[in-house]
């Protein structure tokens, strides 16, 4: 069942999984006045959404094509797969790529070794471990640059 209203804007955004991450992304997209829909199999998860969330909410299984067609997955421009389970996210992303060739798909992965499954499918993977390493590397680089400046 789909609840809420959706606006027609430049981007149609779909968020699959109303984890803290999914709820935050959907709320951000809503704040930016994107046309956003969030799907989770547990209706109680929607309490994590911002009180100002103004998109659609749908209760359904993110790996069930009937449930995904209910939220017009083929019309989506950007899809974020954010459940707390890597296997579900990988399977869902691969199903989505088969039914929507033009969408930009982003997949949350906890285990960085699972990224290789996405190779060749034009699916963007985002892994917390990789983000940590990137950020720490950037901070260490800045610290090193500042130290070199002080030594001069």
TrEMBL record:
Pfam families: TrkA_N. Residues 13-122 form the RCK N-terminal domain. One of its GO terms (biological process) is potassium ion transport. PANTHER family: POTASSIUM CHANNEL PROTEIN 2-RELATED-RELATED, TRK SYSTEM POTASSIUM UPTAKE PROTEIN TRKA. This is RCK N-terminal domain-containing protein. It comes from Dubosiella newyorkensis.
């Amino acid at each position: 069942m789909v609840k809420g209203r959706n606006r027609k804007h430049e981007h149609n955004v779909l968020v699959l999984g109303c984890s803290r991450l999914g709820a935050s992304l959907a709320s951000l997209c809503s704040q930016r006045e994107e046309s956003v829909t969030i799907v989770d199999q547990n209706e109680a998860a929607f309490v994590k959404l911002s009180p100002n969330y103004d998109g659609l909410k749908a209760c359904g299984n993110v790996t069930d094509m009937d449930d995904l067609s209910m939220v017009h997955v083929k019309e989506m421009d950007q899809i974020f797969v954010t459940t707390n389970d890597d296997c579900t996210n990988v399977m869902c992303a691969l199903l989505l790529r088969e039914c929507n060739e033009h969408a930009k798909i982003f997949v949350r992965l906890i285990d960085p070794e699972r990224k290789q499954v996405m190779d060749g499918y034009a699916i963007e993977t985002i892994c917390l471990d990789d983000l940590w390493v990137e950020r720490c590397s950037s901070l260490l680089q800045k610290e090193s640059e500042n130290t070199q400046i002080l030594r001069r």
